[in-house]
Every structure is written in C-alpha cells, then in structure tokens.
Design brief:
The complex is a heterodimer of chains A (331) and B (654). Chain A contains nine helices and 15 strands. In chain A, strands 1, 3, 5, 6, 8 and 9 form a six-stranded mixed β-sheet that branches. In chain A, strands 14-13-12-15 form a four-stranded mixed β-sheet. In chain A, strands 2-4-7 form a three-stranded antiparallel β-sheet. Chain A is an alpha+beta fold. Chain B has 654 residues and is α+β, with helices and mostly antiparallel strands. In chain B, helix 1 packs antiparallel against helix 7, helix 4 packs antiparallel against helix 5 and helix 17 packs parallel to helix 20. Chain B contains 20 helices and 21 strands. The two termini of chain B are 64 Å apart. Helix content of chain B is 50%, strand content 16%. In chain B, the strands form five sheets. An eight-stranded antiparallel β-sheet of chain B has the order 7-8-11-14-9-2-19-18. A five-stranded antiparallel β-sheet of chain B has the order 10-3-17-20-21, with helices on one face. In chain B, strands 1-5-4 form a three-stranded antiparallel β-sheet, with no helix packed on it. Classes of the chains: A alpha+beta (331), B alpha+beta (654). At the A-B interface, helix 1, helix 2, strand 5, strand 8 and strand 9 of A face helix 6, helix 7 and helix 8 of B.
C-alpha cells in the first residue's frame, strides 16, 4: 500500500524540502549575525515567518477538521465498497488543502484537494473489509503537507460508524455451480394449478400474508403455519443455514460455508427467485427491493454455535452446514 | 496552472532573483548578462513547447565538470573574491538545472539554487527597493513551494486525478501572514556580533562621491546631478533661522601644487569622549542641538555642520585625515546616526600655528587683490570685500565646457575668463587672500539641502556638493562663500506638489535607512529601555492612583462588594472545573497515573499503555473508558453517563 511510504507514528515530521529550508534558514541566520547586515535580517525574518506560519497553518488546519462517516453502500467482505466521508472545516481562517485520509478500513489512502474554511466536503471513498460481520469504524489518520511542504503533519481522529459487512461472495464458477438452483426448482410449469393447490407447509416468515395462514394446523401446533401453493413453492428456494460449528471444524471452513450460502442466495435473487432463509430463531424471505439485504445482514451477523441447534428441515429445503453428514442425519 | 506555465514561472523566478545583482554590482555584468541570455533562451524554447535543452545536456555536464576547476581559477585569479566566484558558480548551476531537469526531477533543488541567488542579491543591497523585491520573490517562492508540496502529496499515494493547485490567492494570504510575522520578528532578532569571526562582512563602500581627493584644475570638473541622500539633519524650529542654510564640512584643501589643490594630511588624533560626547571646539554664543543621519561616502568621514563643537552618540571621534576634519570608526553598515551641538561661533580647542597657503601669487593677481581690498585693515574686512566682489562681478557657470574651456587655471579664472563654478570661486578667493598674506583654505562639503515639510529635517544630497572658503581671522576660522547665492546648490525652485512628493519619498527612505537598514543592537537596547521605562512609569502611575483610590473606597460596602465578586469568581472557576468534559477529566486522571494522552492518542490506546505500566489501575479505569466511549460516540445523548464517570473518578481519586 503506498500509504506505508509516508505514514508514521507521532504528530509531525520534517520533510526533505523542510530540512533543506531549515538548513538554508540557519545559513542565512549565521550570515546575518556575522555581518550585521539588515538586508539579510529581512530575508531571515521572512524565512522564519514562513516556517512559523507553515507550522501554525498545518496544525491549525488539521485541528479544525471534523470527519464523519457518512454512508456506505453494500459492503461485502473482500470487495471494495463505495462509501462516503464528510469532512468539515470549522476554522475561520485556514483553508486546508492536500489532506490525505488513511484508515485501516479504507481500500487506499484518500486525497482531499481542499476543505474550505467553514465549509464541508463529501468525499467518495472505497472501503475494504476482510471479514463479514459488524465492523466499527474507530479512527482515521489525517496527513497534510500544506502549505509549503516543510512539515508532514498528522492528526489521528476518532470517528464513530458501524458497517454490516456481508459475507464474502465466492468468485469461482465451480463453487457456484455446485449450488446453482436446478431447473425444476426454478420453474412451476410442470405443476398443476395456478397457485391454489397446496404444495407444502412451513413456518411463518416475516412478510408473509396472513391470508395464507393454515389456521387449523397453527392451532394444533401452537405456532403460525403457512400454506404454500404449488406456484409459490416453485418460485422460492428454501435455504437453511446451520450455525453449529463442531470443535474440530476450523473457523475458515465455517466462513466458507456462510460464503457459499450467501453466494447461492445472491445468485438466486439475481435470477429472480425468491429465497427463504431459515436460521435459528429467524426466518426471512427475500422479495423485491431491499428485503434481500436482510438475508445477507442475517448471514453477516451469524455467529457460530458451540452446541447443535435444532431446526426444521422441510421438503426441498437446501441445508448449509459444516456438520459431518452422519451428524446431520442424526440431527 | 499548466506544467509549461509552471516551468516558465520557475525560470522567471531564477532570473528575477538575480536582477538586483546588476544594481549592487557585487559581480561584474558579463556573467549576469550571460546567465540571463541563457535563461531567456531556455524560457523561449519552453514557451514554444520544446524541451529546455538549449545546450545539449551532455555538453552541460561536461561544462559542469570543467567548472569545478574553473571555480578555483575564478576565485584565485579572475574575480579574486570567493564570494563573487561563488555567485558565478550559483549562476552556472541555476542555468544548468533546467536542462538537467529533463533527466531528473530536481524542482526543489532548483528552488534552493534560486534562493541562494536571492541571498546573494539581498546581501549586497541597501536600497529600499529591495523590500518590494523580497515581497515579490517570496510570493513567487510560496507559489512554487505549494506546487512542490502538492506534487509530493499526490505522488506519495499514487493519486492520479489530482487537479493543479490554485496557489495564487493562498500564496498572497501566506505572504501577508509572513510579512506580519517578519515585522514582529525583525526588531527582536539579536543583533550581536559573532565572537568567532568579528567583522567579516561590512557595509558597502560607494563608488562615487561629491567630494574628490583633490581639486585638479588641469582636469575637466563638473558637479554631479546625483540625487542620492548623503545626510539628514534635524534641528528644532528655533534653531533653523540661525543655522541655515546648512554647510556640512567634508574636506579641506590648503596645499597647492601643479594647478591642483590638495588636502594636507595629518596623523590620527583621537578626541576625548566624556559622557558619550566628544568635544572638538570651544563654543561661543547661541547653541543648539541637531540630530544627524549620515551615509559614509568618503571612508568613515563625518560631515559636520559648520559650528559643530560637540559630537555625541559615536563610540569614537578622530581628527583626521586633515586638521579640523573628523571621522569615526564603524566596521559595519554605511549609515551612522549621531547628535551634534552647534554654536554660532566656535574657536579651536588649542592654538595652533596657522600658515598662509602656498599658492604662487602672480603680480596681476596681487594687484587685483589690493584693488578689491582697498583700505581694509582686518582679514575679516578684506575677505568680505573679496567675497562680495567675486559674487557680484563674476559669473557662475556650472560646466566650464559650456564656455569652450574644459579646464583653466585659477589665474585664468580671475584675470581673463571671470566665469566658473564654485571651486573656481573658492580657489580664486583663496588666491586673492594669499596675496594679501591672509590664511585661507578651500572647504569641500555640502550646502543647503531641502527641508522636508513632513518630518522637519533637512535632506542633503550628493548634488548639493559645494566648495567655499574659510579665512583665519586671528582666533578662529570664519566662513565665506564667494559663489553667488542664487546659484549655489539647493536653491532651485520647485512646485509645491513636487516638494511634497519628494518629501514623502524621502520620508519613506529615511524610515528605511533609520529603522531598517541601520537598526542595530543600540536600537534594541534603546527599545528595551524605553519599554521598561514606560512600564515602570505606568506601574508607578497605577500604584499612586491605586493608593489614592484605596483611601477613598476602602469602606465596608466596598469590601463587601469585593468579597462578593471574589466569591462569584471562585464559584465560576469551580463550576467551570466541575463542568469540564469527561475526556479532560480522564486525561487528567491518566496523567496522574503517569500516562500523557496526546492529541493523536485515543483513550483506548492510553488505557492499553496504562495496562502495561499499572494493570490494577487499568482494570479500575476500563469501565470508565467504556462509558466514556459510549457517552462520546453513541448517537443518543445520555447525561447520566457523564455524571457516572465523574462520580467514579472522584471515588477512584479518593
């Protein structure tokens, strides 16, 4: 990362140009004192003034910057996510130019040409998160050489922001093919009826219409059971994700499973298929709009369970799990 | 700004930095002209869209190698001056670097070279015009530095979409700030001598002067029209009628030989300085004080007004190089400020033998002198008659060339031509007095000057150079001037507007000379003393005023009000202390535990550091830090968290 070439610990660093300028100032100072030549003293005062003002400007400029995490679009682990930072300059005096924003979560350092005094700028940035889950943005480092490049001034700032990072989507076609919805699952053409025949029953999912509640069965089981027609079933894929991670299974394997589930759901939605995602204590259905995000959000926040979790596996449902096959059958 | 425009500006800046060298003459003109020709050639190529390689880079590199040897030869044999040779070297480098920039990125090195040229230029300049030069140079330098800073920032992160930096307004803003800071710093920077290399540099000597070593009538002589200021004299209003027109004595010509009047030499005679003042004559009659600022144009010779009997403010005063002419010692600067006391009449401190000049008087001149003097019985009477005769019967001509004679003898002037400039008038009078056995001498100096109505001082310029006569009247030298009054220097009439414009310009120059160019350790000491004195007197006034006020207002009611105000103050301080933000409280607590929380450190980082040094204290503080984080960075505002932190911190301290 190029930022490594100039990031440093501490608050300020003298640059190469600055070192040359300081040495030159010392030479002029020596010449002025040696000769008592007030013309040289004039030059010296200008140079000292420039040094002083440069330090004050860079410190004063950064001091008055306020940076806020503004927004981020869909953030997927391992993919650059477009986001936005808002930088405000509270100073009444200093325009701050050439600010470089560096943060662990940013894909690369961001260059901000100018933040005018008493002004705000929105900066488009790219975030890059390594892992899914809830990521808290904690701090950014601001660097500037402005105005004269004598000093590289740094200010570490706290920011508050939270991003839900969706699971990593698998890139290779091979892994996708394994879970591609089969033809029959996607089509209801070989089914009789027009969505009125009962195909199966399932638990209530948020977003379901109450018109399809199967009251009789719900009353007997003590929870809401939905009646699925043939057409509905044909257009939807039921995905069950098992959060159980046995002790002998590596974290990476669990994450791979979550990624596979996310990739499957992503591809299904992309092909216009509704997805019902079932996880312990939660069941979500994708439909138009942002509802699909809820599925990925749930996957993003899925935590591995040390103990086996019981889940109803309905007919035609697709199970994602890191359990051994024998364990899965017994469960 | 496009890269081409920037390159042109860089070239222009280097050329601009070297311009003052033409005026200061620190180096000869040919190398400077060569430098500017090459740089203009490079600039022309760049302007036409070509590369800067006016001379092929390989050839320039060969020149660069050769120049290393040439530098030694230049310093030893050609310039015979290391500073001049170094300036030549910098000029060469400044011309070489744009050509080399095709191969290597050397923008900052080029600016450094330009700065060295700037240093060479200002180091040898004393004129006020150097100030706008410094300002303009600084502005352009700031622009260039901003561009370099911008380039470095962009390059450090491989950023490609950066626009060019608009640096003009920003450079002007920082120039204003720098000028303000510079003005504050200028009087404060220490003016101390270097104890290791005292007097390495010094003031610049001037090439020309209104006063020559001798008055050689075999050579064509004419007065100079140079308006350069030589001296400024300030005196009180009541002194002006008695001591003007001013006559500043600079040289005495009392030896004649081969149609040339020369200055009689003498050994250096230091004058005794008592209480900071050197007495050089005995006063008589009305006396007043005058303040003089003078530029050295003939060594360190002082141009004292006629009637001066005491000189103050100089470390040493020496009678030299002739009798009744004085000089001082000053190794730095070409300006000096001092006070004098002047009297209507002065007499020498000690009686010395006075001789009649050795001018070879011819019978016609002797006859003429006798005719003019008539029945005069005293030297004073004879001198007055001769002065009046020459002033009325002879004609003043500024340049003898206008009458067809480039030079003539004094006898020619007196007997045939009867026309000439002030030196002929003075020499003619001395010749006539010599024939009468009256000691007389020619005085070279400056006459008249112009009163600056804005500041109240007289300005004497080089063009005011004049010659007159001093006649020994038995106990003192008396001044006579045979040149017609209306034709003496400084008597030209000017319009009011021109007078004021000239006065304004001169006032600015005076300020520059007095408070910038000659500002020194003495001024700093005076400034400090004045500051201390003013502070003391202010404190004294305050104290006496306060004592009087205290007596008046020291009553129960007043004490009650004061007590109430103090209580309110304490309450305000306590409230401010109690309402301090939790971050400040935590920072203070951490500081007590030995952890300094800097601006660039978060509380968590501070806690981590504390955990290494004091795990128990860190465990105790951890929940407070967590509460602080929640209070500070969560979206909802919860005042109870802050209160809880304050309470917990109090408990921790207890």
């Amino acid at each position: 990362m190029p930022a490594d070439t100039f990031t440093f610990n501490g608050v300020v660093r003298l640059t190469r140009v600055g070192t040359g300028f300081v040495l030159f100032t010392i030479v002029i100072g020596f010449a002025a004192i040696n000769t008592g030549n007030n013309s040289l003293y004039i030059g010296l005062t200008f140079m000292l003034g420039a040094l002083l003002l440069s330090g004050i400007a860079s410190k004063g400029g950064l001091k008055h910057l306020v940076i806020e995490f503004s927004s981020v679009d869909e953030a997927w682990a391992g993919r650059a996510a477009e986001g936005r930072l808002r930088i405000a300059n509270d100073s009444r005096i200093w325009n701050v130019r050439d600010v470089i924003v560096v943060a662990q979560e940013l894909a690369h350092p961001v260059f901000v040409p100018v933040v005018p005094r008493r002004g705000k700028v929105d900066v488009d940035v790219q975030f890059l998160f390594a892992h899914r889950g809830r990521v808290e943005l904690r701090q950014v480092d601001l660097y500037t050489r402005y105005p004269f490049g004598f000093f590289l001034k740094k200010r570490r700032m706290r920011i508050s922001g939270e991003v839900i990072v969706f699971p990593r989507l698998l890139e290779g076609d091979g892994s996708r093919d394994r879970f591609a919805p089969v033809e029959g699952e996607l089509s209801s053409a070989n089914r009789i009826g027009h969505g009125t025949d009962v195909h199966s029953f399932r638990d209530y999912v948020r977003g379901d219409s109450l018109r399809h509640v199967y009251w009789k069965k719900s009353a007997s089981l003590g929870r809401w059971i939905m009646k699925q027609t043939e057409l509905d079933a044909g257009r939807a894929v039921h995905v069950v994700v098992d959060p159980y991670k046995p002790r002998d299974v590596a974290d990476d394997e669990f994450e791979q499973m979550v990624s596979e589930a996310a990739t499957f759901i992503h591809d299904s939605i992309a092909q216009g298929v509704d997805v019902v995602l079932t996880m312990p204590r939660i069941s979500l259905r994708s439909s138009a709009g942002d509802a699909s995000r809820a599925l990925f959000r749930a996957l993003a926040l899925l935590e591995a369970s040390r103990e086996p979790v019981e889940q109803t596996l309905e007919r035609g449902a697709l199970l994602f799990s890191v359990r051994r096959i024998d364990d899965a059958k017994s469960a | 700004m496009t890269p081409k425009a920037r390159e042109l500006e860089t070239l222009a800046l280097a050329m601009f930095a070297a311009v003052p060298l033409y005026f200061t003459q620190a180096i000869l003109a040919p190398p400077l002209i060569a430098f500017h020709v090459v740089m203009l050639g490079i600039a022309a190529r760049v302007a036409m869209g070509k590369g800067p390689e006016l001379i092929p880079a390989a050839v320039m590199r060969a020149f660069a190698v050769a120049y290393m040897f040439f530098y030694v030869i230049d310093a030893a044999a050609i310039s015979r001056n290391a500073i001049a040779a170094s300036t030549h070297l910098i000029l060469f480098i400044a011309a070489y670097q744009p050509i080399e920039s095709v191969r290597t990125r050397n923008q900052s090195q080029r600016l450094l070279t330009t700065s060295l040229l700037f240093l060479a230029s200002i180091a040898t300049a004393t004129h006020i015009l150097i100030l706008p030069f410094v300002v303009a140079f600084t502005f352009l330098m700031f622009r260039q530095l901003m561009h370099i800073s911008h380039d470095e920032s962009v390059r450090s992160i491989d950023y490609t979409a950066a626009r060019e930096l608009p640096a003009g307004r920003a450079a002007a803003f920082y120039l204003c700030g720098t000028t303000l800071v510079g003005m504050l710093l200028f009087p404060l920077l220490p003016r101390v001598r270097n104890p290791l290399l005292p007097g390495v540099g010094g003031g610049l000597t001037n090439a020309s002067t209104g006063l020559s070593e001798s008055i050689d009538f075999s050579q064509p002589r004419s007065s100079t029209g140079d308006a350069g200021v030589v001296t400024r004299v300030w005196m009180s209003q009541d002194a002006i009628p008695f001591f003007t027109p001013l006559r500043l004595r600079g040289a005495l010509y009392d030896r004649f030989g081969k149609n040339e009047w020369r200055q009689g030499r003498r050994e250096f005679l230091p004058m005794e300085v008592r209480n900071g003042a050197a007495t050089i004559a005995r006063p008589s009659g009305f006396t007043r004080r005058a303040i003089i600022q003078q530029r050295f144009i003939v060594g360190t010779r002082l141009f004292l007004p006629v009637g001066t009997y005491e000189v103050a403010g100089l470390p040493q005063v020496v009678e030299a190089p002739t009798r009744d002419i004085f000089m001082t010692w000053q190794t730095r600067g070409d300006l000096v400020n001092y006070d004098v006391r002047i009297a209507r009449e002065i007499r020498p401190l000690r009686q010395r033998p006075v001789a009649v000049s050795n001018y070879p008087v011819t019978p016609p001149v002797a006859l003429m002198a006798r005719q003019i003097a008539g029945d005069a019985t005293t030297a004073d009477q004879a001198a007055r008659r001769i002065e009046a005769h020459l002033a009325t019967k002879f004609t003043y001509v500024a340049d003898p060339a206008t009458i067809g004679r480039r030079s003539m003898t004094v006898d020619d002037f007196l007997l045939n031509e009867r026309r000439g400039h002030c030196e002929y008038f003075a020499a003619g009078m001395v010749a006539l007095l010599t024939s009468l056995n009256i000691p007389a001498r020619i005085v070279g100096g400056f006459y008249g000057g112009q009163l600056n109505p804005l500041t109240g001082y007289f300005v004497i310029r080089r063009q005011d150079a004049h010659a007159w006569v001093e006649v020994w009247t038995g106990d003192s030298w008396e001044t006579f001037d045979p040149t017609p009054v209306s034709l003496r220097p400084g008597n030209t009439q000017q319009g009011l507007l021109r007078v004021y414009a000239s006065a304004l310009g001169d006032s600015i120059t005076y300020f520059w000379d007095r408070y910038i160019l000659t500002f020194g350790l003495g001024d700093q000491v005076a400034l400090a003393i004045e500051l201390i004195t003013r502070t003391r007197s202010a404190m004294e006034r305050l104290r006496s005023g306060a004592a009087a006020s205290m007596r008046e207002v020291l009553s129960i009611r007043f004490l009650m009000i004061v007590t109430a105000l103090i209580a309110l103050g304490f309450l305000a301080v306590w409230l401010m202390h109690a309402r301090r933000p939790t971050s400040a409280l935590l920072t203070e607590h951490l500081r007590r535990l030995g952890i300094n929380v800097s601006d660039a450190m978060t509380m968590e980082e501070a806690l981590a550091r504390l955990r290494i040094e004091n795990p128990d204290a860190a465990d105790a503080l951890q929940p407070l830090i967590a509460m602080y984080e929640e209070e500070r960075f969560s979206n909802r505002h919860d005042a109870s968290l802050a209160s809880a932190i304050r309470r917990a911190l109090r408990e921790l301290r207890a």
